[in-house]
């Protein structure tokens, strides 16, 4: 420990788009803490050098984003550093912390952030018999893991590339079923939670084309895309009067554990934080 205020980072390549500095900067300011959080562009070729050297630069940890989440996992695994069970299950790290013994700890908070965003939107204690997760990329892996942890008995993963959906079954073959996009409509009838984890519905992308009529009236529809705030999927869910959860909550809640580990206070996700990030999204070209 140097006695200097703690410094944290978000690394990615590119990184200019990251809203993490806005989130952590807001918490540092509102909690009145000394410390800093900055974005650092780290090209893949420079990643190992950055990871080996950041503690000497006064950093206590940071966030990891595209394209480095899997590479950071591999680096930590191969150098016998600390990985949480969640990071091990996903093979991906989004949060790094420097431990008192000088080792690095890799964690993944995406799935817990998603679950917390549902808790916030519909109230804790929600239960569903079946979740339908559309997409099978990195975010889907984290979300499927979190849904398993929350005890959801049956999870259908539907993806354009069927093999990737089948790959997720390894987490819990008796509870996860893989499907192609053509099977989406058929899976809706018994679904209590529908989650879009694909890039469909993002600003500039086509919508996720799915008729929500077969969903039960008490279903929850979540979209982890957060630009725009109301995706076509969420607009369709609103028309049907279904409960809806936007993607911004996941982004905000996944940031909580990292902030607590670097700066020593557990921050809250509240309306003021949401307003800061929404204003930034609204101002983007
Ligand atoms: N709210 C948050 O905090 C948060 C966190 C993480 C990610 N996200 C968002 O979640 C989305 C996915 O991120 P990721 O990291 O999981 O990406 P990823 O690993 O690249 O996965 C992308 C997924 O989208 C599917 N997809 C892409 N284009 C498609 C199309 N035209 N038709 C059908 N499926 C398509 C892919 O299917 P294939 O496998 O067939 O290619 C795959 O399942 C992004 O929009 C990202 O911004 C939000």
Detail the topology: elements first, then pairings.
Blueprint: E1 7-12, H1 20-31, E2 36-41, H2 47-53, E3 59-64, H3 69-78, E4 82-83, H4 85-90, E5 95-98, E6 104-107, H5 110-122, E7 130-134, H6 138-149, E8 154-159, H7 162-167, E9 176-180, H8 184-187, E10 193-196, E11 220-223, H9 232-239, E12 243-245, H10 248-254, H11 256-263, H12 271-283
Parallel strand pairs: 1-2, 1-3, 4-6, 7-8, 7-10, 8-9, 10-11, 11-12
Antiparallel strand pairs: 3-5, 5-6
Residues 110, 135-140, 159-161, 164, 197-200, 202, 224-226, 247, 250-251, 254 line the site of NADP nicotinamide-adenine-dinucleotide phosphate.
Short synopsis of the structure:
The chain is of the alpha/beta class and 285 residues long. The chain has helices at 20-31, 47-53, 69-78, 85-90, 110-122, 138-149, 162-167, 184-187, 232-239, 248-254, 256-263, 271-283; strands at residues 7-12, 36-41, 59-64, 82-83, 95-98, 104-107, 130-134, 154-159, 176-180, 193-196, 220-223, 243-245. 44% of the residues are buried.
